[in-house]
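Minutes, project check-in

Agenda point 3 was the complex the collaborators sent over. CS summarized: two entities, 224 residues total, and the question is how they sit relative to each other. Sequences were read into the notes so everyone works from the same version.
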Amino acid sequence: GENVEQHPSTLSVQEGDSAVIKCTYSDSASNYFPWYKQELGKRPQLIIDIRSNVGEKKDQRIAVTLNKTAKHFSLHITETQPEDSAVYFCAAPSPGGGNKLTFGTGTQLKVEL
Amino acid sequence: AAGVIQSPRHLIKEKRETATLKCYPIPRHDTVYWYQQGPGQDPQFLISFYEKMQSDKGSIPDRFSAQQFSDYHSELNMSSLELGDSALYFCASSLVLYGYTFGSGTRLTVV
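CS then shared the predicted structure for the full assembly.
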């Protein structure tokens, strides 16, 4: 099945700095890569996604880049704010049909004042 | 916009009891998924349904079963509960793979 690895597991940045979270995947046929933000005890919420026909997608302070050759994709958050503090999960489709996602192990992002 | 509705939000059960979790997907979404998330862990896929038929099965114990009904809502039935079943259970729905949206989850505590 799909193997999704996510790094780092924890990330601490100063307010205003940038944060980058990286994920690698194993199935070269994967074509959809969402990122979720999860606050403590709440549901994962989709913040941005990218399909394999583009290399980069941006939405205000958030961007995702995809390198299909290397099979990795990254989340970039610029001008971080305290409310960006949360756990971020990357995901990729699991092979074999059913449209299920395999999640990375999560990154705990802490934005310090 | 309508979201994925899950009930109950919290549930406390004793060991060996049975629990039923309910999920109402976003209208016109054709796929429903169930995930289990332990403390500090990523969501683990349990089972999914596409157009009311089971479409995929993950790490779901034999003690658990699920189904999707004619109105597209889904129920996860958990029997012979164990302490290790305590977790957040999320339902998600999507149209094919896109618009993948999670419900607010049910926090199950087994005591």
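Noted in discussion: The longest strand of chain A covers residues 86-93.
Follow-up: revisit at the next meeting once the mutant set is ready.
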